[in-house]
Amino acid sequence: MSWRNPAPPVMANEYTISTDKALLDLQYVYDLLCVPSRYSTGLPPERFPLVIENSVCFHVRHWDRQMGFARVVTDYTEFASLWDVFIDEPHRGQGLGKALMSAILQHPHLRGVFRWFLMTEDAHRLYQKFGFKTETWNPYIMMRVASFSTGV
User: Could you give the residue ranges of the DSSP H alpha helices within 1-152?
Assistant: First the structure.
């Protein structure tokens, strides 16, 4: 399997989590990343294609509509940085954040990554369930370090 090929989709009740960029709703992601909001300072639109191209993108779909997203920037072995994790408001509280995080950490090309980083203002409890710990020097940064013996 090529590094660029999508992994098989993961099902979570009536939702599908996929890395297939051909199915990615680019307008949804553009609005999420490029339009200034509580979740984004507004990525310059000219950088948007490179962000998608150079990330492992995960999208959550409910039937034929995208309603969640996350992306990983990685070298596939030593580090991975998790960005832009988002579930639409009406779909929150159904365990989709947990399902998305499980799909990310169990992705065939990512599950052996040694060190994970992320930044969050308000989702610490979710990430702690997956072994992330808050950095004492910056409470917005969380890190997860795998065990050498297990890789998880």
Answer: 26-34, 48-53, 96-105, 124-128
Residues 6+ apart with CB under 8 A from 3: 76, 109
Contacts 24+ apart (CB under 8 A), 121-130: 123/85, 123/97, 126/97, 126/98, 126/101, 127/101, 129/98, 129/101, 130/101, 130/102, 130/105
For residue 80, pLDDT over 70 is answered with: yes
Please give the sequence-ordered ranges of beta strands (E in DSSP) within 24-137, or none if there are none: 56-62, 65-74, 79-87, 115-119, 133-135
Q: For residues 135 and 44, give the distance between their C-alpha atoms in angstroms, rounded to a whole number.
A: 29
44, two tokens: 């310059």
The Cα 112–Cα 120 span in angstroms is: 23
Q: What is the DSSP letter of 9?
A: P
0.85 exceeded by the pTM? yes
State how far the Cα of 104 lies from the Cα of 83, in Å rounded to an integer.
11
CB 132 within 8 A of CB 31: no
